[in-house]
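Researcher: Quick one. two chains, 457 residues in total.
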Amino acid sequence: DGEVIYDGRINCRLQLGSFRLCDVSQSGNMAAMMQFPSNVSTFNNYNDLYPDWTQREVSTGTTIMAVEFDGGVVIGADSRTTTGAYIANRVTDKLTPIHDRIFCCRSGSAADTQAIADVVTYQLGFHREELMAGIIVAGWDRRRGGQVYTVPVGGMMSRQPVSVGGSGSSYIYGYVDSNFKEGMNREECVNFTASAVSLAMERDGSSGGVIRLAVISEGSVERRVILGNQLPKFSTV
Amino acid sequence: MEDCGEHEGTSELKLGTTIIAVEFDGGVVMGSDSRVSAKEAVVNRVMNKLSQVHDKIYCALSGSAADAQTMAEIINYHLDVHSIEVGEDPLVHSAATLVKNMSYKYKEELSAHLIVGGWDRKAGGQVYATLNGILTRQPFAVGGSGSFYIYGYVDAEYKADMSREECQEFVINSLSLAMGRDGSSGGVAYLVTIDSETVEEKCILPAELPTFYDPDTIES
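Model:
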């Protein structure tokens, strides 16, 4: 897809399915610019070149993330719900409380989040073809403090200090692996979550909008929203 | 007639891969992993995917192993002829254009993606991405199946005007992170640094690669 604006520059966003590859901005005469094929958005042929999930018609576009810290957890998600290419809701709240201090981060079609974690696990096993990443359950209790449990497709459950999920999560595995440190405090966790979700939103066409965060600890559940113009900025995006 | 296609015991060789190239002032750094897989088997764990197509121009290979290697060989041939015709070293842009033309013309038959990087006298260090028949110059480019896992990392960590050593560190860290998450990337990391004076090739063994936090090692 491309559009020409009045000053003769061409700004194009190259998107392969829902993956935003790069933005190209060039000036100069028209003949020199059109060096790429116009049908670059269809990508079915290269099924061995890219991970299979980039071609699936899945509407579970989301980026969700949860991080444990000493005294609680920080959870974050983007806010976009899509039906095909139409953004049905750009300010969705995907962080659903299932109890005072326990939240579910919803990933797309895993809509029934009133259930507790093991009921959700059963439903994930039932709908396994429709789901990509499953659910992250995070919260605080008196016994074990802040905990993050990840329940991916298939119904496995495991506790992890940090977990990411949803279609946007693939792009930030490298960032999360390199930037997570044990023993971060509350504010560091919030910044880490916000940065990671922001990076994923930039690359995944199915994730976007605002970043919704919740900080769950013994005393309280603090909800925060980071609007589009307040997102953490990086030099390439 | 018997089916001569894929059957039990054969499968196409893939360069499920992580490749990356970064420009710096005066040159480029290119890096790749070394795994070649045939479905779940690793058929070559030390393959150098940085293929030299001219003195100071390299291609990083990904996708189908045969397609990528053949493309690099043909580009090498064309560049040799071209450099004799013009009487001097070819431009990186020329090499990238040749790759782009081939990728676009044989789009349906080939499934390989080459990142072209090098140094020439006219424009210094350059990196070109040629995915799907496009030709675009970028400050850095990543490719291959492992690249998806490090998009967030490279977006966050890349800074303009990095020095040669910073670029090398950036490439090594990115490769290491991608190899840690992508089952089709692994082995050793190959690096090549091209500048006006030298072309320096390096191989980094797994034990020497930087390690990062791995949440899966924590007991619950």
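The CA atoms of residues 128 and 158 of chain B lie 17 Å apart.
Researcher: Thanks, that's what I needed.
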